[in-house]
Amino acid sequence: MKILVADDSRVMRQIVIRTLRQAGYDDHDIVEAEDGRDAYDKVRSESPDLVLSDWNMPNMTGLECLQALRGSGSSVPFGFVTSEGSAEMREKAADAGALFLIAKPFTEETFRENLEGVLA
Q1: With b meaning 16 or more CB within 10 Å and e meaning fewer, what string describes 54-91?
Q2: Nearest C-alpha neighbor of 74 from the set 103, 93, 49, 54
Q3: Which long-range contacts (CB under 8 A, 24 or more apart) does 113-116 make?
Q4: Total domain count for the chain?
Q5: Is the terminal CB of the chain with fewer CB neighbours within 10 Å at N or C?
Q6: Per the database record, which ranges form the Response regulatory domain (predicted)?
């Protein structure tokens, strides 16, 4: 399976990837995107099985990316890994079609809890 990790911080992308591997998802192909626009384009070109996206990014936010994907007919599983996890953000994420929102700081257990059932 293929996972797309979108975050404007290269360091944060590496932390998310490392946490995925620690959570036991070390046999998946990882594709990186540096912002929402790049993530949108890579969903089209790479056909990932899951998108893990930051919320706040330049050019296109994670929420805008998700809305654009759903507007174009894409149903790729999509979750947020972001620094904020307010009830309002969780509601916006769910309304846009996100499966989950993981707030930082996170652990490999948090990843397992949210990805179980999404990645078999």
Answers
A1: bbebeebbbbbbbbbbeeeebebbbbbbbeeeeeebbe
A2: 49
A3: 114/79, 115/23, 115/25, 115/50, 115/79
A4: 1
A5: C
A6: 2-119
For residue 45, the number of C-alpha atoms closer than 13 Å in the C-beta half-sphere is 9
Instruction: Please tell me whether the overall predicted TM-score, pTM, comes out greater than 0.85 for this model.
Output: yes
Rg of the chain in Å (alpha carbons):
13
**CATH number for position 49:** 3.40.50.2300
Domain span holding position 92:
2-116
Mean pLDDT across the chain, nearest whole number? 95
